[in-house]
Amino acid sequence: MALVYGVEKKTVPTHMKFVMGGASGMLATCIVQPLDLLKTRMQISGTLGTREYKNSFEVLSKIWKNEGMLSLYNGLSAGLLRQASYTSAKMGVYQMELDWYRKNFGNYPSMVASMTMGIVAGAFGALCGNPAEVALIRMMSDNRLMPEDRRNYKNVGDAFVRIVKDEGVVALWRGCLPTVGRAMVVNMVQLASYSLMKDQLHGYLSEGIPLHLTAALVSGFLTSVTSMPLDMAKTRIQQMKVIDGKPEYSGTIDVLKKVVKNEGAFAVWKGFTPYLIRMGPHTIFSFVFLEQMNKAYGKHVLGDSLSDSEP
């Protein structure tokens, strides 16, 4: 608990910060999973030597026609596990950092402080969520391969078992470096811009969904623009196959160099439209769900309207 203007202020327990962070991400994923699949298919288009899709609408049309509507949710189990691990860790750590900052400095964090806290939270979350990320990318991209080349994972549990059996435990952290790098950039921009936008808009909008929605919209756009190239590299590395002991890419820089050379400079933003459409709503839903969970917990569990619950 803390004292605010002489009034004892209850705080949300640390473990609940992690639970609500993961739950908000999982709920958002259930809504935007089809967009994530479109983004992934666009990003790996071209790895077979030809450009498979002209735009996001063609991806959607071909998936709908050849694989069926439900295939838009391929990899959902891995996506939910990713949110349960990555987002729980990210949001939980970030909220703990915010609590620490406010307790010690008595105000909202500066831009530099917000960005630093976002980097730390993102890196921690990415390390926890990388195995689910690998399974997710593979499950979403499997149907585009020839039948003899498909992995045909039944679910995320089957994916983990077979990856460990066929490729070793270390393969679960394949692409970890670009994943962590992307997460650091994403969260540096996403979490920091959201917190700062809320701070700036408090003088114009009262605390509530309009404020959360506006801040999340700006955060989602800025995050999409800055993180897309690293997301492209992460996706290519995590779905690549190792042939005769030689991987297709040696690292993030190698991916970006080959993509620019073979597909053009703007190819590093391939899939930007579904990425933005996915990132924007996911950011919005995640933060709005999180804010409402914090508010409900403070009101119904802590029984204190002054509970320290905002992220």
UniProtKB/TrEMBL annotation:
Keyword field contains Coiled coil: no
Subcellular location: Membrane
Segments annotated as Solcar repeats: 16-100, 109-200, 207-296
Keywords: Antiport, Lipid transport, Membrane, Repeat, Transmembrane, Transmembrane helix, Transport
Catalytic reactions of this protein: oxaloacetate(in) + 2-oxoglutarate(out) = oxaloacetate(out) + 2-oxoglutarate(in); maleate(in) + 2-oxoglutarate(out) = maleate(out) + 2-oxoglutarate(in); succinate(in) + 2-oxoglutarate(out) = succinate(out) + 2-oxoglutarate(in); (S)-malate(in) + 2-oxoglutarate(out) = (S)-malate(out) + 2-oxoglutarate(in)
PROSITE patterns, sorted: SOLCAR
PANTHER family the record matches: MITOCHONDRIAL DICARBOXYLATE CARRIER-RELATED (PTHR45618)
Primary localization class, coarse: membrane
The protein's name in its UniProt record: Mitochondrial 2-oxoglutarate/malate carrier protein
A GO BP annotation: lipid transport
Lineage start: Eukaryota, Metazoa, Ecdysozoa, Arthropoda, Hexapoda
GO cellular component, as recorded: membrane
